[in-house]
Amino acid sequence: MSSAPTTTDARPLTFRRYKDGDHQPRPWQEEIFDADHSHKCPTYIQSTPPCQASCPSGEDIRSYLNIVRGIEKPPAGVPWQEYAWRRLTEANPLPSVMGRVCPAPCESGCNRNEVEDFVGINSVEHFLGEYAIANKLQFPKPDKLSGKKVAVIGGGPAGLSAAYQLARKGHAVTIFDERAELGGMMRYGIPGFRTPRAVLDAEIQRILDLGVQARMNTRIGTDVTLDQIKADYDAVFLGMGAQSGRPLPVEGSDAPNCVTATAFLKAFNDGRLRHVGKRVVVVGGGDTSIDVATVARRLGHIETVHESDRPEMAIAGHAAHDAAAISARQGADVTLTSIFTVDKMQASRHEVEHALAEGIAIRGGLAPVAVVCDAGGRAIALRVARCEATIKGGKLEIKMIEGSEEDIEADLIVSAIGQAVDFTGLETLNNGKGGITADRNYQVKDQAGMFVGGDVVRPHLLTTAIGHGAIAADGIDRFLAGEPLDRRPKIDVHTWDIQRKLVEKGMAVSEVHEPIRGTDASNVAVHNFDNRSDRYVIPHEELFLGHFPYTARHKRKIVTLDAERALNNFEERVLPLTEAEAIAEAKRCMSCGLCFECDNCVVYCPQTAVFKVKKSQSTTGRYVDTDYTKCIGCHICHDVCPTGYIQMGLGE
What we know:
The chain is an alpha/beta fold.
């Protein structure tokens, strides 16, 4: 006799309209008003899916997943991979880089989390970025030039995004950067085993090929004044970033071997830093601190260290560690401390797991108290104390636990507690809080024609900087055209355009002069279509989740190293999906807020009122229509619509 399956053996249910403990039915007034019919009929409502609303760069995620899965067809002669890549890069010109390093807030917002697991959006983005590089895809140049010149200060993600969008609009763009190469923190912060330099170079070159000029080793504020830039250009974008590290705010932090994360990573990415001390302590808790810790683990240490070979000498730019090439290299003991507990650290979960697997000790709930120095002034330990850290009202509160101090021995201490903007020569722009104040269009306060974006506005993610650059580029374009800067939409993202799809198919589309009472008497959309993408994010409650069976996520192959194999291993860890895997993963997308042609509404309509649009007139989003002379308003089409595209209206 077989035993009953255990809880762990049971596969989770995908959908239940009522859950355990529910005892109240939904209000009948929302469904049926009189027997089996009501005055409400289907309307077709395009909404923003939560993945797009959660994407700081505003990618049209649902669209490119629908292209990958085969729902939205590309124009004749265009491979679906290219078509999806072009839809993706309308918002983000760096998909291969971001597909590797973005922490993917879009996946946290994904409605598929209510079924079993999020859609691997980041992995599909990675696949499309790799396809574009392998097939040498280029951005189309603008049809005409505006004759206007724009200066972009800073060649990081914000500056590159702004330059890309402005060049597409026909403006002449020059990027000024104080470094030798473009990329900002993507090059001088994130290590190469996370952002391979060949990939970064390829995606930057594609932007330059639009005609964007770059003046390197040129710092605005010292080499060239901002007043000179304003005189020579019609508009300015400030994307300087926050590339100055913050030292530890404790006694002894001025020790020579107590350095900032930005200085540490720049020295490594420049090739100067070749080894670290035997004992390294990193203070932080975010992704940057994980980068420092994993780099330190990989570099290791050498047994015999001369005065000129000390790590801090290389970080300060004084020496290259030639000795490391000929000396026996051994692993460094790396400890990462955070004021938050490990489960509440800001770093990406998978990056934390990698660090732990590589032998890095992560200790949460510790706050730095002092840097302990020897008689010569070098740090020999970091003194820490147990603490409880919380964020209340947007402010960090740290409660220290008395008598809990201890010393963690260290040959090198790295502060990864945040970054700051270097305003040397640009002091007038500082808002007094270490940043630049801007409006919703990212125009600098009281500075017409000067726009800003990225960490100089608010230190955040690379994808956030890309979004800032795109929004600022829109503002610059309107400013150069002499148009007023309108208020941005409540939901400020790129979204699917039904009219563009109709034109792409060769159908004539008449102009829309609002207000209109429905679209059944025009050729601008499907009957009674309304695009609410600029103001409504569709929640999972609006979907029919019962349509979606349990389907495990197709995960990328990720190389996880142990403590020994991590040493001197700078090979890439994240491998792209295969084409078949990318398609299969895209098929897990529920296309929230837009039809994905499942036929449920046609099959289940008891009045045969819902019908398929003729192929010659149909497109994505215009796949089904309603004969309102047959419809009785029974709501069944709405109830079985998996995506929430069909809503009941017309009678209100």
